[in-house]
C-alpha cells in the first residue's frame, strides 16, 4: 500500500543553514503520526515542505491525494465571519463538505455570524480544523494544534480529530513538543532533532523493541543490544537500549514509556531508529 | 476565487469607486453651472477670440481654478494611494498575518491565486484610471475652449489620455512587489509613496527625450505663440547663423531689472533683434500629445509587468 506521506532524501535550506537534512520517511495511510522534537528541530519545515509551502533544495516529499494544513497560529481572515470563512473554503477547494462543517460548528456552539477575529483561542483552532476537515483530505497536517490552548480545548481538539479518523480513512501528521499530548492518540512516531530524522516507526513496535535498563554504575554495557543512550548518576546507571532481552542479571529491565523513548533519542543525536522505512512499501 | 478577491479587497474597491463617483458629481456640477453661466452671461459670439469675451474667460477661469485646486494634487497622490492601499497589502498583509499559509494550502494553486488576484485588481485599477481620465477630459473643454493646456502642463497631462491608468497600474505593481519583498504592509506602503514620487520626477526629466524637439527661429519676440508647447531649451542665433548661449559680443548692453519690471531685458532683446539676432527655441508641439502619452504609458507598462513578474517569481519560489 502506498504511504500517505513519503519523503526521500529531503533537504531544506534557509539561506546558508540547513533546516532539514537528508530526511527519508514514510507514514502509512490511516495512521495518526506524531512529529516530535525540540524547538527548531525542523518540524514546521517538514510540514511546510509536505504541503507545498516550501520548495525542497534536495530530494522530494510526496503526499498521496489531497493534503489539508493548519498552520501553527491557526491563521484565519480576522475580518471574515465564520460563515464567510466557510464560503472561502468552498470556493478555494474542489472537494468540499459544507454540511459537515456547518454541523460541526453548530455542535461546538460557534456562531456563524461571529467575526473570526473575535473568536476565542479554542474556537479559532476549531474553526481552522473544521475548515481543513471540510476539504475531506487524505492527509491532515497540523502544526502544533494544541499550543496555546487550555486543557479543556486541547481535549476537545484531540477528540475532534480522533472522531474524524475513526469515521473514514484519514492520515494525520501532527507536531508537538509535548510528548504527553500525543501518548493516547498517536500510533506512529517521527522524531526530528536538529534537522535530522532520528526515529520513524509504529509506536507499539518501537515500545516493544526498546528497554530501559537500570543497574549499578560499574556494570559493563550489555551485549546483544544497541545502546541508544545512557545516563550515569553516582552509583546508578540508566540505559535505553534497542533489542533484548538482556541476560546479565545485574541489569533490571522494563519497557520504555513513550516519553523515555523520545527523550533517550533526543539526548543522543547520533542514534537513530528508522524501522518504518523497510516495512512500508517504498 | 473571484468572490475571494472581491471579499478581501472590497473596501479598497468601494472606496475608490466612491471617490470617483464623488469626483464625477463634483465635475458634472461644476460643468453644468459653468454652462448655465455661459448661457446667461456670454455676449454673442462668445466664448471666442473677440475682445468682448475676455470678461467671460476670466469668470470661467476662476471657476476652473477653484475645482483644479481641489484635484491638482491628484496626479501624484492618487497613484501613491493606489499603490499603498491596493498593491502593498495584496501580499504584504497575507504574510504579515500568516494567512498566506491558509490561502496557499487550499486546492487552488498559488499561481492561480496570484493570476486571478493580479488580473482582477489590475483590471479594476486600469478601469478606474481610465474613468478618471474620461471625466477630466469631458469636464475641461467646458472651461477651456480654444486654450488647451493638456500637453504643456505636466499635471494636466498626467490626468488625461491613458496616463492615469498607466500610473495607477504602475503604483499597484510596485506596491505588490514591495509587499512580496518586505512581507509587511507598512514598509511596502512607504516604499510605494517614495517610489511613485521618484518615478514621476524621473519621467518628468526624461520626457524631453521622448522625441527630437522641434526648432523654431523667432524674430521680434521670445515667446512661442503656442502656449501649450513644452519648451526644452532656447538659444540666441548670431546673424552668421551660429547658436550661442550668451550673445556677449553683440554690443547690446544688458542692465539688471529692478523689482518686477522687465524693461531692461526687453530693451536688450529688441537691440539684439535689431542687429539681426534671432531667438531659437527647441520645443515639443502639442500635436505630440498622443506620442508622449503612449511613450510614457509604455514605459510604465513595461515597468509594471517587470514588477508583477518579479513579485510572482518571488512568491512562487518560496510561498511559505
Automatic annotation (TrEMBL), chain A:
Residues 5-219 form the ABC transporter domain. This is ABC transporter ATP-binding protein. CDD domains: ABC_DR_subfamily_A (cd03230). Keywords: ATP-binding, Nucleotide-binding, Transport. One of its GO terms (molecular function) is ATP binding. PANTHER family: ABC TRANSPORTER ATP-BINDING PROTEIN ALBC-RELATED. InterPro entries: AAA+_ATPase (IPR003593), ABC_transporter-like_ATP-bd (IPR003439), ABC_Transporter_VariousFunc (IPR051782), P-loop_NTPase (IPR027417). Gene3D superfamilies: P-loop containing nucleotide triphosphate hydrolases. It comes from the Bacteria.
From TrEMBL, chain B:
Keywords: Membrane, Transmembrane, Transmembrane helix. The chain crosses the membrane at residues 70-92, 113-139, 151-174, 186-206, 292-312. This is ABC transporter permease. It comes from Nonomuraea terrae.
Amino acid at each position: 500500500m502506498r504511504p500517505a506521506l513519503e519523503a526521500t532524501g529531503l533537504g531544506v535550506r534557509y539561506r546558508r543553514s540547513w533546516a532539514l537534512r537528508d530526511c527519508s520517511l514514510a507514514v502509512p495511510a490511516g495512521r495518526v503520526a506524531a512529529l516530535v522534537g525540540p524547538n527548531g528541530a525542523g518540524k514546521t519545515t517538514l510540514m511546510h515542505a509536505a504541503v507545498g509551502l516550501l520548495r525542497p533544495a534536495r530530494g522530494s516529499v510526496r503526499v498521496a491525494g489531497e493534503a489539508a494544513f493548519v498552520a501553527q497560529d491557526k491563521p484565519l481572515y480576522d475580518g471574515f465571519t465564520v460563515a464567510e470563512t466557510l464560503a472561502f473554503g468552498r470556493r478555494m477547494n474542489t472537494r468540499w463538505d459544507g454540511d459537515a462543517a456547518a454541523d460541526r460548528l453548530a455542535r461546538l456552539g460557534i456562531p456563524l455570524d461571529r467575526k473570526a477575529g473575535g473568536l476565542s483561542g479554542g474556537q479559532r483552532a476549531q474553526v481552522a480544523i473544521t475548515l481543513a476537515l471540510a476539504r475531506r483530505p487524505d492527509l491532515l497536517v497540523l502544526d502544533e494544534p494544541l499550543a496555546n490552548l487550555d486543557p479543556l480545548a486541547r481535549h476537545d481538539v484531540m477528540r475532534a480529530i480522533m472522531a474524524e479518523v475513526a469515521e473514514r480513512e484519514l492520515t494525520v501528521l501532527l507536531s508537538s513538543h509535548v510528548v504527553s499530548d500525543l501518548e493516547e492518540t498517536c500510533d506512529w512516531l517521527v522524531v526530528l532533532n536538529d534537522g535530522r530524522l532520528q526515529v520513524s516507526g509504529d509506536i507499539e513496535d518501537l515500545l516493544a523493541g526498546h528497554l530501559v535498563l537500570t543497574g549499578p554504575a560499574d556494570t559493563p554495557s550489555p551485549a546483544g543490544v544497541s545502546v541508544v543512550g545512557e545516563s550515569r548518576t553516582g552509583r546508578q546507571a540508566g540505559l535505553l537500549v534497542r533489542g533484548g532481552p538482556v541476560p546479565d542479571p545485574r541489569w533490571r529491565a522494563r519497557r520504555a514509556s513513550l516519553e523515555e523513548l523520545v527523550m533517550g533519542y533526543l539526548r543522543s543525536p547520533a542514534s537513530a531508529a528508522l524501522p518504518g522505512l523497510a516495512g512500508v512499501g517504498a | 476565487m473571484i468572490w475571494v478577491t472581491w471579499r478581501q479587497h472590497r473596501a479598497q474597491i468601494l472606496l475608490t469607486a466612491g471617490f470617483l463617483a464623488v469626483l464625477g458629481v463634483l465635475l458634472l456640477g461644476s460643468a453644468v453651472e459653468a454652462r448655465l453661466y455661459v448661457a446667461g452671461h456670454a455676449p454673442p459670439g462668445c466664448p471666442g477670440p473677440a475682445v468682448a469675451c475676455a470678461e467671460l474667460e476670466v469668470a470661467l477661469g476662476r471657476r476652473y481654478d477653484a475645482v483644479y485646486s481641489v484635484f491638482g494634487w491628484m496626479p501624484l497622490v492618487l497613484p501613491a494611494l493606489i499603490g499603498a492601499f491596493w498593491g502593498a497589502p495584496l501580499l504584504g498583509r497575507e504574510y504579515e498575518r500568516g494567512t498566506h499559509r491558509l490561502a496557499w494550502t487550499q486546492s487552488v494553486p498559488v499561481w492561480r491565486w496570484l493570476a486571478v488576484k493580479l488580473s482582477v485588481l489590475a483590471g479594476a485599477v486600469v478601469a478606474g484610471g481610465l474613468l478618471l481620465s474620461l471625466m477630466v477630459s469631458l469636464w475641461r473643454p467646458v472651461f477651456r475652449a480654444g486654450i488647451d493646456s493638456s500637453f504643456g502642463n505636466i499635471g494636466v497631462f498626467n490626468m488625461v489620455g491613458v496616463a492615469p491608468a498607466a500610473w495607477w497600474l504602475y503604483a499597484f505593481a510596485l506596491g505588490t512587489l514591495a509587499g512580496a519583498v518586505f512581507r509587511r504592509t507598512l514598509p511596502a506602503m512607504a516604499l510605494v509613496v517614495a517610489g511613485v514620487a521618484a518615478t514621476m520626477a524621473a519621467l518628468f526629466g526624461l520626457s524631453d527625450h521622448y522625441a527630437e524637439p522641434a526648432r523654431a527661429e523667432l524674430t521680434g519676440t521670445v515667446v512661442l505663440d503656442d502656449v501649450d508647447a513644452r519648451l526644452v531649451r532656447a538659444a540666441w542665433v548670431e546673424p552668421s547663423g551660429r547658436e550661442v548661449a550668451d550673445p556677449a559680443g553683440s554690443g547690446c548692453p544688458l542692465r539688471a531689472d529692478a523689482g518686477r519690471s522687465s524693461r531692461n531685458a526687453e530693451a536688450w532683446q529688441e537691440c539684439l533683434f535689431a542687429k539681426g539676432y534671432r531667438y531659437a527655441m527647441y520645443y515639443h508641439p502639442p500635436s505630440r500629445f498622443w506620442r508622449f502619452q503612449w511613450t510614457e504609458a509604455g514605459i510604465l507598462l513595461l515597468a509594471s509587468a517587470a514588477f508583477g513578474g518579479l513579485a510572482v517569481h518571488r512568491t512562487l519560489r518560496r510561498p511559505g
